[in-house]
Amino acid sequence: MSEPIDIEQLLVETGAYLEGHFLLTSGLHSPHYYEKFRFLEDPRYNARVAAALAKKFQTREIDVIAGAAIGGILLAYEVARYFNVRCLFAERVDGELAFRRGFHIEPKEKVLLVEDIVTTGGSVMELLELVRETGGDVQGIGLVVDRSNGRFNPAENWHALYTAAVENYTPEECPLCEQGIPLTTRGRSGKSR
Q1: 33 burial type by CB count under 10 A (0-12 exposed, 13-18 middle, 19+ buried)
Q2: How high is the pLDDT of residue 187?
Q3: Low-confidence stretches of the chain (pLDDT beneath 50)
Q4: What CATH number did the domain enclosing 120 receive?
């Protein structure tokens, strides 16, 4: 698992990189979509991606790895295996991220946040605040793909394995909508609309 990994190549090889007209979780539209589960579903790929991400933070002391449901669960678990520490994840409860299932962070525990793909960074920043509310000491944020076009730039130590420059549009400004290209919703419902 120590061999280097080319994230861009992995995204293409696994079918994770898609082209079309997509509604992103952020509410933005894009002609590009990363279906993270195409590489997360395969333990060999997920372990390699997680190890590459973990190595970016290997000089840090880490007690806990935290991710957000759902993709963050698989990634966080593999990163936690690398560090041999606890793994926990936050879930949406009434629209807000929360730790459930008995998960907790002790005050001053050193926490590494991991996320698969960031467009606006809203979920990661929400997770960051949740960890801070518990008294956790955030040691960094690890991302597999940063597709924020520079919008995600927290003060914390962070690293992305791959930075993708992709177009994102508000629904009102979307040229794909103007062209009448059907909008596809991936992830939660997976339906086209």
Answers
A1: buried
A2: 61
A3: 1-2, 188-193
A4: 3.40.50.2020
- Residue 182 phi, psi (nearest 5): -55, 140
133 class by beta-carbon count within 10 Å (0-12 exposed, 13-18 middle, 19+ buried): exposed
Q: Look at residue 149 and tell me if it is in a domain.
A: yes
Q: Which residue has the tokens 């009102």?
A: 172
Residue 26's Cα: distance from chain center in Å? 13
Q: What are phi and psi of 165, to 5 degrees?
A: -90, 100
In total, how many domains does the chain have? 1
Print the domain residue range for 128: 7-185
92-146 tens-digit pLDDT: 999 899 999 999 999 999 999 999 988 888 889 999 999 999 999 999 999 999 9
